[in-house]
Structure formats: C-alpha cells, structure tokens
Design goal:
Strand content of chain B: under 5%
Helix content of chain B: over 70%
Shape of chain A: globular
Structural class of chain B: mainly alpha
Number of helices of chain A: 15
Helix content of chain A: over 70%
Order of helices and strands of chain A: HHHHHHEHHHHHEHHHH
Largest sheet of chain A: 2 strands, antiparallel
Oligomer: heterodimer
Number of helices of chain B: 12
Largest interface: A-B, 42 and 42 residues
CATH topology of chain B: ABC transporter involved in vitamin B12 uptake, BtuC
Largest sheet of chain B: 2 strands, antiparallel
Number of strands of chain A: 2
CATH class of chain B: Mainly Alpha
CATH architecture of chain B: Orthogonal Bundle
Strand order of the largest sheet of chain B: 1-2
Strand order of the largest sheet of chain A: 1-2
Number of domains of chain A: 2
Order of helices and strands of chain B: HHHHHEEHHHHHHH
Number of strands of chain B: 2
Distance between the termini of chain B: 41 Å
C-alpha cells in the first residue's frame, strides 16, 4: 500500500515531465518554419553542443571525473567524417556517424585505459595531455589533416541517399539537416536519460559519491569508470560528427584544449548535478558566444567573468539554481 | 662537438624557463592543493609588463644596464597580481570540491588572456636591446648568444634561491609544515592565510620572472601563457605535482626532449612530450618525485 502511495506522485511527476518534453519537441519541430535560417542554425549548434555536453557530463556529473580533454572526442568525430570524405570519397551522413562514433569510441578505449586509473586532478591533467597529443598531430601532419587550414566537408547526403544535398546550402542546413540533427540528438538525449537511470547509471553515481562504499557493495569501480569514459567519448564524438557538415570545415581548433574548456563551461553553466543542466548550458553558451563574438572582441573576458561569478555565487548552475528556487518557493520554511 | 655544446645550452635554456614556470605551479599545488590553470597567463603578464616598462625606458634613453633591472618589474607585477588574486578568488574555494577550483582558475585564464589583449593589443612586444647588449659568446668552438646564457644563469640562481628559501629559512619550515598538514600548522599558531598568500605570490613571482627573461627572445605574444601552461603541466606530471626537485628534473627532461625534437622530430615533438608524460603517469602515478 505504501509503495503505491509513494509511487503515485512520482508517476504524476513523470507525466508532467513527459508533457513538457513533448511541448519542447513540438516547438523545436515547427521552429524552422517560423524563425529565419540563421536562428535555425543556432538551434542546430545548440542541439549538437547539448549532445557533447551531455556526454561530458556522464563523467563529471554522474561519475565525478572532470575531463579537460573532451575536445579530443569532438574533434575525432569531426575529423573522422572529413577523412572518410577525403580518402574514401564517402558522402553519406550515416557512414560519417558510424565512422565518427566508432573512431571516438576507439579513442575512448585507448584514452580511458590510461585515464581511469586516476581520479581528481590527475585524471583531468592526463585527459588534457592526451587530447593535446591528438591536437599536435592534427596540426603537424598537414598532409593528412590539412594542418591549420583544416578539411572542408560539404553537405552530405542523408538517409542513405534518399535526401540529396540541395543547391541552396543554407536552406538545406536550416531544414533537412536541422531535422536530421534534431532527431539524432533527441535519440542521444533519450539514450543518455535511460543510461543514467539504469542500474549502471546508479552505480556510477554511487562511485561519484563514495568510491570506497561503492566498492564494498560490489561495484567494480574501475571497470564502471572505464565504460562511462568510453560511452562519454561516443556521445561527444557523435556531436563532433553532426557538427562538421553544419560548420562546413574542421580545423585543429576543435581539438585544442580551450575547446575542452568550452564543453566544461557548458555543463557548469547549466549545472552539472542535473540531467537538464548541460543541455540548457549548451544552448545558453552558444547564444552567449555568438552574441559576445559579434559584440566585442573581448568575449573571453566576458565568459571568464561569468565563469568566476558562477563558481563563486551560483555553483549549482542555471538549472540547479532554478530547481532550488522552485523548491524554496513551494516550501519557504526549509 | 659544436652541435653538442649548442644543443646542451639550448636544452638548459628551455629548462630554465620551464623550471621558472613549473616550480610556481608545483609550489602552489604543494602548499594549497590547487592547480592554477591561469599560471601560464601569470607568466605572460610578467612578459608583457617587462616588455612595456623596458619599452618606456628605451624611449626615455635609459642606459642598457638599467634595462636588466626592469626585467624584475615583470616578476614584481606578477607577484602583486598573485597576492591580489589569492585572497579574493581562491580563498573562498579551499573548502569546496576540487572541480570548482579548477573552474575558477580556468575563468581567470580567460579573463587574463583578454585583459592583456585589451591593455597591450594583439601585436607582439619585445625588447631586442637586451640580446643585442650581450652579442654572442664563444665557448670552445661554438658561438652562442650571450643573452641565452644569462637566462640559464637566472634559472640556476632562481633554483638555488628557491631551494635555500624553502629548506634553509624559518619561513621555509613554516611553508613545508603548512604543506604537510594545514590544520596542524594552524593549530600550532601558523598564520595559514599569510602563508598561502606568500606561497601564491612567490609562485607568481617566479612565473613572471620566467616570462620577463624569455620575452626579449620570443616576444610577449597572446597565447604564450596557454602554450606555457601545457608544457608546465608536462613538467610537473613527469616530476611529480607538488615536488620542487621534480619540477627541476622535469624541466631538464622536457628541455632536452624539446631541443632534440626541434632538430630531429619536429612533427611529433609535442606528441612525444605528452606521451612521455602519459608513460610516467602510467608507471609512477605520482610522477618521478611525487608522493601520492
């Protein structure tokens, strides 16, 4: 009986969340018909960065590992597509995704094998150092990677050739490709949601909160961290692959460690202790950067100040703070 | 033989600069368990301030010997900056999770990078008067820029002074005691806040000095801090985070590998450095001299 009572409010909560999700998806689905293409592209970027930040947050928010090397996976996803085009002439987005996610999972296995042996600051520095290896290789081996010029990736064909790239590139990116990105990233969000709620996800949170206790109840800490690392790499790599046709070009900048910093920033801005945080953070960050870059050349200054203020005054991030305020308004006594 | 001498001196030159950056990073970590991601930018501040004051002095026709003392202005400015930053930005975070400490110094990195762009523009600054004043020196059969030798001497003197300070002075004892057990030191009457400010300022002073002495050769340029930070990470990871001896040995190793790399494997020079760091971490997680 008590089980029924305790379950009832939760399922109602889930229904409320389901409706909210459906509303957001509906809005996202009609937006390209309402707003201009530039704004639609911004939403595509937001969705893509949301996938990257969610992947990153599987490590920071759920496993307690702060990676300053996630640019490596984003860049691998992007470069895998570019190299498939350059050396094999592949033009299919599906093959790009298979190649990009595959390559970043592989990199995740290699880097994870080294990195998850450590935690805390050593993990962060090691992830950073290994990602820098990749960056320096992309920079120096220009006959493969195009060096600082990068590699161009024109619009690919979608759904195994059913949707050909249109002559009007902007219209293609703002409609066909937008829906493609929308569906793939929603699928990624759904998979991540199921993952963090699965026994595996709960075990990760146990490791985050208390490694020793987690080990005592039988969680194989290092193996779970390794799997989380590889999965995280796959998500961020997928984001990189989705990003490259949108940007049209991949350069070593996305392998360089300040790009890892951006991904960290997104998760922290939204709040890394909530599922939604990195998604909101990615959208807000993207608008913030687009606005700041257009408005001033000192946008890093602005971002830096925001980050310092966030850490000092609002460590729960946008979503975390909103939840706290909401709970407080419903129950001011606490 | 000539090549051997020149390459050895070049590696010592790199090692001096790297040691000046890395020892501050490792000192700050050793004492207050914070990895300062903005440390490279403090080094850049040293370079910019020194270039700026020397530029003013050259315009005012100061004698060249005076210019060398102005290199200290970069170090001094970096130390003052550090003394201002520690109590305001870092002190509120010592009790918080490690992630936040990394994040705030990352924010500081972004801020400092753009402040330097704002103050000194995006053109590199330099001071060619100083290398010119030295000309080149002949060692056995090899000719070598005198200024680079000066930098090596600065590095050796700084390493010696730091060693004497940490291991031979009363404050050094207090510093090491605080590093070992902050609570116990505080209980015994050590003013931990003061120790933290001083340790941070000393770390920044050394980084600023490194930036100032390298400036006449490679210039004060935007992005130099970030590049230096990554190399300093490699140094402290190899040597062991928190160990001054480790910073010295790490700097010598990285200096030598960089010199060899530029000559023999330019494409993969950075990759080789990071791989060395990864291998060291793999074999000895705390670095060569670290205590895990």
């Amino acid at each position: 009986m008590s089980a029924v009572i305790s379950v009832a409010p939760r399922s109602m909560m889930a229904a409320w969340q389901l409706w909210a999700c459906a509303a957001v998806i509906a809005v996202l689905a009609v937006l390209p018909w309402i707003i201009d293409p530039f704004q639609t592209l911004q939403i595509s970027y937001g969705l893509i960065f949301a996938v990257a930040a969610l992947g990153f947050n599987l490590l920071l928010g759920y496993t307690g590992l702060l990676s300053f090397g996630h640019a490596a996976f984003f860049g691998t996803g992007a470069y895998a597509a570019a190299l498939l085009l350059k050396f094999l002439g592949v033009k299919s987005m599906e093959l790009y995704i298979v190649g990009g996610v595959g390559a970043s999972l592989l990199l995740g296995v290699i880097m994870g094998a080294v990195c998850v042996r450590y935690t805390r600051i050593f993990f962060s520095i090691l992830a950073l150092a290994l990602s820098q290896v990749l960056w320096s290789l992309a920079l120096k081996f220009f006959w493969v990677s195009g060096g600082t010029d990068g590699l161009r990736v024109p619009t690919p064909t979608l759904l195994g050739g059913l949707v050909e790239a249109a002559a009007d590139k902007t219209a293609f990116l703002a409609h066909q490709y937008y829906y493609y990105v929308l569906v793939v990233s929603l699928a990624a969000v759904a998979i991540m949601w199921l993952m963090v709620r699965s026994p595996f996800g709960v075990a990760l949170q146990a490791i985050r909160d208390n490694e020793v206790r987690a080990e005592f109840v039988g969680v194989r800490v290092r193996r779970y961290r390794f799997i989380a690392f590889v999965a995280s790499a796959g998500f961020t790599g997928l984001a990189g692959t989705l990003w490259v046709p949108l940007n049209g070009l991949t350069t070593p900048d996305i392998l360089y460690w300040p790009f890892s910093g951006k991904i960290v920033f997104m998760a922290v801005l939204g709040g890394f202790r909530t599922f939604l945080g990195p998604i909101v953070g990615a959208f807000v960050y993207n608008y913030l950067e687009t606005f700041a870059v257009g408005y001033t050349i000192y946008w890093q200054l602005l971002l830096g100040v925001i980050l310092v203020v966030l850490v000092l005054a609002m460590p729960a991030g946008l979503v975390g703070t909103a939840i706290q305020l909401f709970k407080h308004s419903r129950n001011p006594a606490r | 033989m000539e090549i051997l001498i020149v390459q050895t001196l070049n590696s010592l030159f790199y090692a001096s600069i790297l040691f000046l950056i890395a020892c501050g990073l490792t000192l700050v970590y050793g004492v207050m368990r914070i990895v300062n991601m903005a440390h490279g930018n403090i080094y850049a501040v040293g370079a910019y301030v020194a270039a700026w004051t020397i530029g003013l002095a050259v315009a005012a026709k100061f004698p060249v010997a005076m210019l060398f003392f102005l290199l200290l202005s970069g170090a001094g400015a970096a130390a003052l900056l550090g003394a201002a930053l520690e109590p305001t930005l870092l002190r509120p975070l010592y009790r918080r999770a490690e992630e936040y400490q990394l994040l705030i110094t990352f924010g500081l990195l972004l801020i400092l990078e753009d402040l330097m762009r704002l103050l000194w523009g995006s053109h590199p600054l330099t001071a060619s008067e100083l290398p010119d004043a030295f000309g080149s020196v002949h060692i056995l059969a090899a000719a070598y820029p005198g200024y680079n030798l000066f930098v090596i001497v600065v590095g050796i003197v700084a390493a010696g002074a730091l060693w004497a300070f940490v291991y031979r002075t009363r404050f050094g004892v207090i510093l090491r005691a605080t590093a070992q057990d902050m609570r116990m030191a505080a209980a015994l009457g050590v003013d931990v806040k003061r120790v933290y400010v001083l340790a941070f300022a000393i770390g920044c002073f050394l980084a600023g000095l490194g930036g100032a002495v390298v400036m006449p050769i490679s210039g004060a340029v935007l992005g130099m801090g970030v590049d230096a930070l990554i190399l300093a990470f490699v140094v402290v990871v190899i040597g062991g985070l928190g160990s001054l001896e480790g910073a010295l040995v790490g700097a010598l190793i990285v200096g030598a590998v960089r010199t060899l790399g530029i000559t023999y494997f330019a494409e993969i020079e950075l990759a080789v450095l990071y791989l060395i760091a990864a291998v060291v971490l793999f074999v000895r997680p705390a670095g060569l001299f670290g205590r895990a």
